[in-house]
Amino acid sequence: MKKVFLAFLSTATIVTSCFTRTYASESPDGIVAIVGKEIILNSDVEEQELMFRMQFPDAKREPQLRKRLVENMIDQKILLTKAKIDSVTVDEKSIDDMAAAKFSSLRAGFSSVSDMEVRFSRPVNRLKKDIHDDILNQQMVDALRRKRFHDVNVTYEEVMAFYRKEKDRLPRVPEEVSVSQIIKYPEFANSARQEALEKIKAVQEKLKKGSDFAALARQYSEDPGSRALGGDLGFVQKGELVSSFETAAFALKPGQVSDVVESRFGYHLIQLLEKEGNSIHVRHILSIFDRSRTDEPKTMELLRSIRADILSGRTTFAAMAGKYSDDPLSAKLGGLIKPSSGRPFIEVASLKPELQQIISGLKSAGDLSQPQRIQPPKAEPFFALFLLNSREPAHNMTPEHDFARLEELAVDGKRQQLFSAWIEALKKEVMVQVMSDI
Predict the structure, then answer these.
(1) Of 288, 309, 330, which residue is a domain's last?
(2) Same domain, 127 and 207
(3) What are phi and psi of 302, to 5 degrees?
(4) Which range marks the domain in which residue 63 is found?
(5) Alpha-carbon distance 63 to 46, whole Å?
(6) Phi/psi of residue 334, each to 5°?
(7) CATH number for 246
(8) Residue environment code for 251-274, b if the CB has 16+ CB neighbours within 10 A, otherwise e
(9) Nearest CA to 261 among 274, 276, 249, 275?
């Protein structure tokens, strides 16, 4: 654990954040260091130390934590100063979008703007600016690092040299599986569907008579995440929304409102605000289906029928996932669950216990589970079929079996060495003055 949180300190991320200022110490503030035209305050360091100790409890036994934090903050300020000197440019529109989305997410956690202002001890306009500036600074530093190190690579000989040097310290590769899924949410009773439809039709009539969309969303929408924001979902990428909602939304022109659109959540009225390539800025009004009135036996029977057709050879799992699965991301991949890493394998230990138990019953590639009812802790239940594509047992890393992993680790190590040397060189270009002993 000690190596984990000390290694974390070496990552090039902006460590100052407006979201932690309210946790700062009440002790008198002061300047800890000056980096170019940037300053690091004592309160900044204390905020980072507190948040770090919350994330890594073992850090309480690390006497050099404050010193390492300050050194890391100095490095980030140097990078930011260098980015400004080099006139690094970033996509301002993208930053505005990310800042707006971050503020919307933050705002959703408070009953009113005034409550949020009290919580963060600053007016809302200042809070918005802090969010925007933090994201801008991070994007500038990231752009600078990408420009400097994006083309770092290693030869076969370098990978093998890395392996020989680090062989005894390399992490053991955990057991992994490649799994595909078909997800189905329970069908709703006709009475629940009709009731939701009547509600959304009533709202639609108010819109036709000239009522404001955002005002109606605040009053009538049953989406708790966007209702307080006038139904605003911010910018979303193609492929992130359920298919019926996405198809209707992308077909709209800016300012246009859709007809009633059905999804597994209920009935929607959608207004397109902006469209940029594969991104759209939308808001909606949702009339949800009564989740106490579902036909679970019907959903289970559908999955049994799908399973029988797959086992008989009349169809394939991929075809059924594309046709029936309610998970849009995996459905487009024939049901394949693809982690954020981009690799098709998932660590078994990272799966929830219920799913681990299901997967453990699938012994060989091609094994297909029985239909399963899954009840997430804080979400609606769903039904699923799982297909085991392949299983990789836990093992020690070797070039023969894990060359891609070793290559990635070797590249990361080389980048870190180059980065450390670069930082030391930059310190000769940027004035750094530490005001007190840290």
Answers:
(1) 288
(2) no
(3) -60, -45
(4) 2-143+428-434
(5) 14
(6) 70, 25
(7) 3.10.50.40
(8) ebeeeebbebbbbbbbbbbbbbbe
(9) 249
Measured from the Cβ of residue 303, the count of other Cβ atoms closer than 10 Å reads 22
Q: How many CA atoms lie within 13 A of 355 on its CB side?
A: 22
pLDDT in tens, the chain (438 residues): 333 333 333 343 333 444 333 333 334 468 888 888 888 888 778 767 765 776 677 666 677 888 888 888 888 888 888 888 888 888 888 898 888 888 888 788 788 888 888 877 778 898 888 888 878 888 888 888 888 888 899 999 999 999 999 999 999 999 999 999 999 988 888 889 999 999 999 999 999 999 999 999 999 999 988 999 999 998 888 877 888 999 999 999 999 999 999 988 899 999 999 998 888 999 999 999 988 888 889 899 999 999 999 999 999 999 999 999 988 889 989 999 988 767 779 999 988 888 899 999 999 999 999 999 998 877 778 999 999 999 999 999 999 999 999 999 999 999 989 988 998 888 887 788 888 666
246, 261, 288: which is the final residue of a domain? Answer: 288
In the three-class reduction of DSSP (H, G, I as helix; E, B as strand; rest coil), residue 256 is classed as: coil
